[in-house]
Amino acid sequence: MIELLPSRLPALARWFPGGAPGIAALPEHVITTGNGRWWADRPVNPRAVAVSSGDHVLLRGDPGGLTPEALAPFAGGYYIEAPARFLPVLGGAFQRIDPWERMVYVHQAPAMPARPAPGITVRRLTPKDAPALVALGTATSWIHATWGGPEQLAASGLGWGAFHRNRVLSLACTYFLGSQYEDVAALADPGHRRQHLTLACVTALCQDIAARGRTPSWTCSRDNRPSRFLAWSAGFRLTREYVHYGTGPARRLGLSGQAEAA
Fold it and tell me: Would strands 167-177 and 159-164 be described as parallel, antiparallel, or unpaired?
């Protein structure tokens, strides 16, 4: 697929209806924040269109116009959400595709009480907090990938952290900013889990989202029991399930242009 210029966005937006929770808010996030990329099988009258942010990709349209090599930009470490009709071409493009069952929750109930220990402050992130986000390490970089980096997330005004002095112990932020829903992501320092810090951050963020006139949503793997429990504790309730596909390395192409296993 080829990357398209931002000037094409009004025409591309029709491929992805807005106002839905979870991963469906990704296209709106890219349009609103500019943090993401648009792709199509051809620049004029495309048959298949994709939009990506962080390591997530939404793929829509007619797979008949796609060759395995067209999907090469999404090899190795992306998560593609696409209708089942795309499975043959996905299987032909990558050495493996790993299905992950996902669950989408919407905020519908009061959160359980969260009382951080004395000395810990839960507050909105500011641009000055960027170094503290960097200090969390590369293993947590996924949480600001959809913002383009820690500086952009810190400056967005859409994140909350639990701080002890200048150190971030837990963090919650808007991961995908939609017109009606904001999909929430959260993490905690491994040494400070089970202290209700993440719950406190998520609760503060949800109140913030509601004040903006939107509804919080939450997306996680079916196998991620801690995330599911946190979502329930924060007042989220399950609304739908879907599958996305983690991509392996791209297949090699033979002389005939057909995909081959490496």
Answer: antiparallel
* Tens-binned pLDDT, residue by residue, of the chain (262 aa): 899 876 666 577 788 888 999 999 999 999 999 999 999 998 888 999 999 999 999 999 999 989 989 999 999 999 999 999 999 999 999 999 999 999 999 999 999 999 888 899 999 999 999 999 999 999 999 999 999 999 999 999 999 999 998 899 999 999 999 999 999 999 998 766 667 899 999 999 999 999 999 999 999 999 999 999 999 999 999 999 999 999 999 987 554 445 554 4
Q: How many CA atoms lie within 13 A of 142 on its CB side?
A: 11
The CA distance from 48 to 188, in Å, is 38
Cβ-Cβ contacts under 8 Å for 77 (sequence gap 6 or more): 55, 246, 247
Residue 9 parent element (H or E):
helix 9-12
CA distances from 1 to 37, 45, 68, 70, 228 (A): 12, 13, 10, 5, 35
Distance of CA 42 to the CA centre of its chain: 26
| Bridge partners, 105 (sequence order) | 218, 238
CA distance 81 to 247: 11
DSSP string spanning 183-225?
EEEEEE-GGGTTSSHHHHHHHHHHHHHHHTT-EEEEEEETT-H
- The span from the CA of 179 to the CA of 247, in Å, is 29
Bridge partners for 23 per DSSP: none
Q: Other C-beta atoms within 10 Å of 135: how many?
A: 12
Provide the CB-side half-sphere exposure for 133 (13 A, CA). 29
